[in-house]
Amino acid sequence: MEEKRNKELLLEIKDLSVKTGDKQLLYGVNLNVKEGEVHVIFGPNGSGKSSLVSAIMGLPNYEVVSGDIRFKGKSILGLGLTERARMGIGLAFQHSPVVEGVSVDILLRAIAKDKKIVHEITKETDLKKHLNREVNVGFSGGERKRGELLQLLAQSPQLVMFDEPDSGVDVENMGLIIKIVRKLLQKDLPIMKRKNCGIIVTHSGTILEKIHANIGYVMIGGRIVCSGSPLDIFDQIRTNGFARCAKEARENERFQL
Amino acid sequence: MKDSNYDKKLKEEISALDRVGFDTKGETERSGSFLVIDNKEEESLSREDELIILPITLALKEYPWVKDLLFSIVNKDKDKWTKMVAEEEQIVGSFIYVKEGVKVQFPTQSCFFLHNEGFDQILHNVIVLDPGSKLDVITGCTTGNLVTRGRHISVTETFVREGASLSYTMIHDWGAKTVVYPRTAIKVEKRGSYTSNYVALTKVGEIQSNPVAYLSDEATVKFSSIIYGRPDSLIDMGSRAILKGRGSSAEIISRVVSKRSRIISRGYIEGGNEGTKGHMECNGLLLDKKSSIYAVPELEASHIDTELSHEASIGKIAGEQLNYLMSRGLDEESARSLLIRGFLEGGIKGLPRNIQDRIDAMIRKATSKESI
Ligand SMILES: Nc1ncnc2c1ncn2[C@@H]1O[C@H](COP(=O)(O)OP(=O)(O)OP(=O)(O)O)[C@@H](O)[C@H]1O
Ligand SMILES: [Mg+2]
Q1: DSSP string of B67-119?
Q2: Residue B205: inside a domain, yes or no?
Q3: Which residue, among B170, B305, B168, B197, has the nearest Cα to B248 in the 3D structure?
Q4: In this predicted model, which residue has the larger pLDDT, A236 or A104?
Q5: Which of A22, A23, A40, A57 gets mutated to test ligand 1 (max ligand atoms within 8 A of its CB)?
Q6: Contact at 8 Å (CB) between A70 and A62?
């Protein structure tokens, strides 16, 4: 019998502020994600959602001004992209770049530890015909989103961050996307066996109907301004827009001054 | 006297020539074979009746018309190097000739091998494809393992007669301090086509090569080059196409990577008749601060009804692409290696299968993590 134990805290973000050049992108963000958990981030365009996941991934240009990001109990601020990825952090990019000259097949083989899975995961993501194409070159919007998930399947990270995996995806493909997101998050394993955790950035509710998330946040102006049950928050946004949260945010700010 | 040890070593080195596409073991299908070691024609062999492969001296005896071809499209007095070739008493070189209408299925291979340190290899080669014939040639130029210094000076004159089609692939793999001055001209007659693929991915002292093609009516030419300049190499490479015939066309594509080397990448197309078309693509990738690439794409229109264009770009590896690959767990060298490989592979595509495979393998080797 496996010993019952508490879920381990995988990602700890403490009072994180991030800037790029002279522009501050994030202000004092706090976030804790445990094994098996899924967190959702909402927020208007330009509010800092992508900046947050980019800073966690360690993309250059996202400079941490203060605070800390810890993964598996260790600060990762000093680590580069490769090291973070190898520790188990993965990101499905909102806007993935084209990589001329490099075929999907070659890239997957470079990413995957077990080369044998390449065939299977391309089938799962319905991208078999894309295997010999150059990465993202001429891909449609939806193909690009699936391509991101395909690469994550090859990488198999433990903290899986999805930056708008569902935007611009048609109804049929949405089913496929949801299936793969579920797989990456081990949603089909019993709760106690799930080791992976996820952060999903989204503007739509579809994905939430099919994937249970533990907690949702609204980000405005680089701050997390409220949190709560993801479906509740999404309902509120749908009825009142981001306005109510924004108001709370302003009041908070006034309060701080 | 040369001892048996020397012969043994030479044998070993010859059997290693497959790195430049010269198969001595009979593993790849070849229609013929020509090998020069230093200044000796070691092998000239054809497996087809209507494909003639001979040392140039024998060709001159057997086919009197060959004499008129020598220095007919490369000017004897062009420079110091052509003069050196012209002044050779005993000329050495290959003669490859395909008779009218014959389409040779498998590639012919040739190899110019510099075996002795400090040797001057001086060659004059002639290729003739009679009307309606077809041939693929793969030529490897290389040095022995221990040779660093040496010079290769050559004149190659190629005649693609009416409706004939020649694809000519040249692989350079010279020693670190070898200097190389090939002088090449190609005459492509009516509706003929000439495809040149040039590959230089290893260390060399200096290469200076500017092949020029003269095109008659409706003839086409395509020059593709991929070059990886290694530390301290100087490579001056450029293709020229003179569109003299109506409706003739040219395409020049080059992908050059510079790692602490200097590369001059030239291209010149002259549109000199109606309905002529020319396009040039010249892309360069700098790997470090000590590299330089000088791209010189030139277009000259001497007829109103010609369409000429070029694209040129030089830059470093895109940070965005590098970060993307690294965010999947690739280390920086592996990511760079993939990107450089992809960049070079984009330069040469669609060759006959066994030549393309050979080149792809060479690119993989040249861009492996250890060698970038
Ligand atoms: N490199 C940069 N230079 C300047 N401004 C930047 C840079 N990166 C992000 N920003 C700005 O920071 C703000 C937050 O951007 P971010 O991409 O994080 O927003 P987002 O919440 O993901 O928006 P969306 O919903 O549109 O994807 C935006 O105003 C954006 O223009
Ligand atoms: Mg975003």
Answers
A1: HHHTTSSS-TTSSHHHHHHHH-SS---EEEEE-TT-B--SPEEEEEEE-STT-
A2: no
A3: B305
A4: A104
A5: A23
A6: no
Q: Specify the number of domains making up chain B.
A: 3
Q: Examine the pLDDT at A217 and tell me if it is beyond 90.
A: yes
What's the pLDDT tens digit per position in A45-81?
999 999 999 999 999 999 999 999 999 999 999 999 9
φ, ψ of residue B169 in degrees (nearest 5): -110, 125
Asked whether residue B163 is domain-assigned, the answer is yes
A51 lines ligand 1 (CB under 6 A): yes
**Interface predicted TM-score (ipTM) over 0.90:** yes
How far is it, in rounded angstroms, from Cα A207 to Cα B116? Answer: 70
Chain A residues within 8 A of B339 when measuring between CB atoms: 99, 101-102
Give B175's DSSP letter.
Answer: -
Does residue A1 have a pLDDT over 60? no
Same domain, B173 and B84: yes
- Provide the token pair at A156: 């198999």
Give the pLDDT of residue B176: 86
Inspect the interface and report whether the beta carbons of B327 and A97 lie closer than 8 Å: no
Q: How does strand A223-228 pair with strand B165-173?
A: unpaired
Q: Tell whether the model's pLDDT for residue A6 goes beyond 80.
A: no
Is the separation of the CB atoms in B356 and B197 below 8 Å?
no
Does the structure show a pLDDT above 90 at B4?
Answer: no
pLDDT at residue B75 tops 80: yes
Residues in chain A with CB shorter than 8 Å from the CB of B334 are: 110
> Tell me: domain A2-94+157-172+185-251, CATH 3.90.1720.10, correct?
no
Write out the residue range of the structural domain in which residue B237 sits. Answer: 210-316
Tell me: do B305 and B172 sit in the same domain: no
